[in-house]
Amino acid sequence: MLGLASLTHDEALRDASAAENLATRSSLAARPAHFAPKADRVVHLFMNGGPSHVDTFDYKPLLEKYHGQSMPEGNFRTERLTGGLMKSPFRFRQRGESGLYVSELFEQTSKFIDDMAIIRSMQAEVPNHEPSLMLMNCGDGRLPRPSFGAWVTYGLGTQNQNLPAFVAMCPGGYPIVSTRNWRSAFLPGACQGTYLDTQHSDLEKLIENIRHPSLKLTGQREQLDLTQAFNKKHLELRAHDPKLESRIQSFELAFRMQTEAEDAFDLSREPKHIHDAYGNGTHGNQLLITRRLLERGVRFVQVWSGAGQPWDNHNDLEKLHRKLAADWDRPIAAFLGDLKQRGLLDSTLVLWGGEFGRTPVAERPALNGRDHNHYGFSCWLAGGGVHGGYAHGATDDFGFAATKDIVSVHDLHATMLHLLGLDHERLTYRYAGRDFRLTDVHGKVVRELIA
């Protein structure tokens, strides 16, 4: 048995480079875009649960005038029982040279309004979290499809083979529908997101098993080379099965992460003034990690508000939205300013938003919260190639439904892919007898959003 081990290990040493090539180049190697990109990487700030657009980025003064009254032209159908119109408890004012209205909830973030394009005419398909999360993340609310981050990783690869191409951070657990939000589905498994529970700051809790309890790196490398040599032959006998290939790649990535993850995730290496800017809260730490990952070539980072659906404020909206926004406002402003100062904002595409918005009418019985609203809501883009200081589209006078220059989730995805240099109609993957794409048979690039 020892002789066999010795023989196969010698073979493994000869095949090690081939095994590593297999593990790194097939799915994760950097690839050219379809055309010159305006952005190289994506950060998705996901306000899961559905933030209220009429309390953040879509000012509706008529809500105060008609507070407590019924909609003049009648209510849209809502998921739960609702009452009269509800004014925003938050003050709005014009910001920046563009003069766009933003509420007091995002006082610090609004300092960068002239770098942001506010989309005020977003529409989803249904007022339910699960399908709306799937639509926003995967382009389909019903069927298992690859996530946006997986598609970007598949299309462009990554610039750093020692870190995941796609990272999803959510403190305290999973959002609704959990890992399906960052899955690869039928794309190569290496394209799926790597989840981090960012309630932890200690590296060994943030990334489980990042350090081997007994073996040094040289011993681990020898052990992995032997395993990968067997795996390479195993894969060849199975017509390069993508699931097996993904598992092989995950072993290789897990080993390589040991050499770079400790540096990337060690926030103690940041100077005091950076910590002071971001604050010492969870979201400040998440965004500081995000910036460090971007600097090291990670392609796509998704940053969640927390487990479950924190922004789903059917009751006590004023108190809860104020707390949620306060946790995010300073870190977002610090993050955008930090990227800008380092010359990274021009090549980083930042998306902020939830899976839908909230109704301008109050939800019964408490009448101090808002129901789900897929008819119209807001999100914003900033950074690489974005038309800054611009508001696109509009909802009606009360903010219930998008009425002007409506942007579907497919349109948003098509536009973001375009900014990354990818044609959403050409970024396809053949599966089950047909070509699939993130936008399916939908989507158009919203040219007005592009600088």
What does this structure look like?
With 451 residues, the chain is an alpha/beta fold. The chain has a single domain, classed as Alkaline Phosphatase, subunit A. It is built from 11 helices and 18 strands. The strands form 5 sheets. Strands 1, 5, 6, 7, 8, 9, 12, 13 and 16 form a 9-stranded mixed β-sheet that branches. The N terminus is likely disordered.
Write the element-wise H/E pattern from the N-terminal end onward: HEHEEEEHHEEHHHHHEHEEEEEEEEHEE
Largest sheet: 9 strands, mixed
Number of domains: 1
Strand content: 15-25%
Number of strands: 18
Low-confidence stretches: 1-25
In short:
The protein has 451 residues and is α/β, with parallel strands linked by helices.
Provide key terms for this protein.
single chain, 451 residues, alpha/beta, Alkaline Phosphatase, subunit A, three-stranded antiparallel sheet, 11 helices, disordered N terminus
Topology, please?
Blueprint: H1 2-25, E1 41-46, H2 62-65, E2 82-85, E3 92-95, E4 100-103, E5 116-123, H3 129-138, H4 148-156, E6 166-169, E7 194-196, H5 203-206, H6 217-236, H7 242-264, H8 272-278, H9 282-295, E8 300-304, H10 317-341, E9 348-353, E10 357-363, E11 370-373, E12 377-383, E13 390-392, E14 394-395, E15 402-404, E16 407-408, H11 409-419, E17 429-431, E18 434-436
Parallel strand pairs: 1-8, 1-9, 5-13, 5-16, 6-7, 6-8
Antiparallel strand pairs: 2-10, 3-4, 5-12, 9-12, 10-11, 14-15, 17-18
Helix pairs in contact: 1-6, 1-7, 6-7, 9-10
